[in-house]
Structure formats: structure tokens, C-alpha cells
Amino acid sequence: NQEEFMQKLAAIKVCPVVVIDDAEDAVPLARALEAGGLPMAEVTFRTEAAAESIARIAREVPGVIVGAGTVLDREQCARAIDAGAQFIVAPSFSDEVAQYAIGHGVAYCPGTCTPTDIANALRYNLPMVKFFPAEAYGGLKTIKALASVFPQLKFMPTGGVNPQNVNDYLAFDKIISVGGTWVCKKDLVRAKDWDGISRACHE
Ligand code: 3PG
């Protein structure tokens, strides 16, 4: 559920966003994340392999907390949860996804970047939101301004977060974790460079 997910996120601090084209890559990729010390994977529904990848990680790599990203509608949310997703992330906010995820006891972290987006999320008493795309929408400065009017809320900035700015984000106490694709870069996945992914986790 939401509280459990937040505790895990707060401990890991970086949620690797992964784009998997071939479900055969899912298990070695998840093991590389675990070996690198970031035992979490947000598998994006931007590829056909997403649901099968989540199912394989959930079955074969139990040490990795696996969830779904880029979940835009109820149908994708249902497929993600059926496959074993332990959390649902999106670039946007959706009532139907909120209702479905919460109804199934699965954490939902919607994408927001304006006060109105956040107010929509708060109708479901969500304790945290993703702030996306973080760097393009003003980064830490904007999050601090939003946090001043939503003091109870935690944020997960994603979009443009990288090894150079990650510590600035994580130093703000309202930021529970960051998300990003830099750990599982496309070329590393394509080259099946699992050691390279573990090294990126360490970095
Ligand atoms: C996402 O899926 O959340 C974004 O693509 C992550 O943004 P990044 O590629 O800048 O890390």
C-alpha cells in the first residue's frame, strides 16, 4: 500500500525508470539493479514488453520492488497490477487510475506540475506525487514553492534528474526520492551491459 511503498522509496531514494523492449532482458536488468544497490524498477508502459517484464521480475527477482510507469489509463493500470506491479507511476494524474489502484491496494504516484494537478491528487488523500518534468518546470525552486502551500505532501521529482543534481534534490526534506532513466540508459540495455547498469547505480 501507499505507506509501505513510501517507506521503501525513502530508503532507496532513487527509483530507476526502465524501458524494456524485450521481456527477455527484464530479469538480468532487475538483477543488475539489485546488485548495484537500487532494488527498484519502474517499468514503463511505453513498450509492448512492459506487462510481461513486470511479471517476470515479480516472479524471479523477489528482492526488487517492481512497479509500472507511464500508466495513463485504467486498462494499463489493470494489466500492470495483474502482472504483479507493486506501485503505479504516471507522468499525469488520472481519476480512473487513482480509483483502480487505490481500490486494489496498490500505491499510486501520479505526475503533477501545477497546484491544480496536486489538488486533484489530494482528493484521493495521496501522500506523495511525482513532479514531472522536474528540470523543465523549474526544478527544486518550483518544488519548494509548491511545498510551501502543500506542507503535508512529499515529492518525487523526475525528468532531467541526473548524477550532477540528484543530491541537491534529495537534500530537501519534502523530496522522498527521485526518479530517472539515467541509471538504465537505453544504450546500456540495448548492449545488455548489465555490469554497466550496476555501475550506474553505484554512481
Ligand atoms: C519518465 O519516464 O519518468 C521520464 O522519462 C524520466 O525522465 P528522464 O529521462 O529525464 O530521467
Automatic annotation (TrEMBL):
Pathway: Carbohydrate acid metabolism; 2-dehydro-3-deoxy-D-gluconate degradation; D-glyceraldehyde 3-phosphate and pyruvate from 2-dehydro-3-deoxy-D-gluconate: step 2/2. Signal peptide: none annotated. It comes from the Bacteria. Homotrimer. This is 2-dehydro-3-deoxy-phosphogluconate aldolase. InterPro entries: Aldlse_KDPG_KHG (IPR000887), Aldolase_TIM (IPR013785), KDPG/KHG_AS_1 (IPR031337). It holds the Pfam family Aldolase. The lineage of its organism: Bacteria, Bacillati, Bacillota, Clostridia, Lachnospirales. One of its GO terms (molecular function) is 2-dehydro-3-deoxy-phosphogluconate aldolase activity. The gene is eda. It comes from Shuttleworthella satelles DSM 14600. Keywords: Carbohydrate metabolism, Lyase. Belongs to the KHG/KDPG aldolase family. Its EC number is 4.1.2.14. It catalyses: 2-dehydro-3-deoxy-6-phospho-D-gluconate = D-glyceraldehyde 3-phosphate + pyruvate.
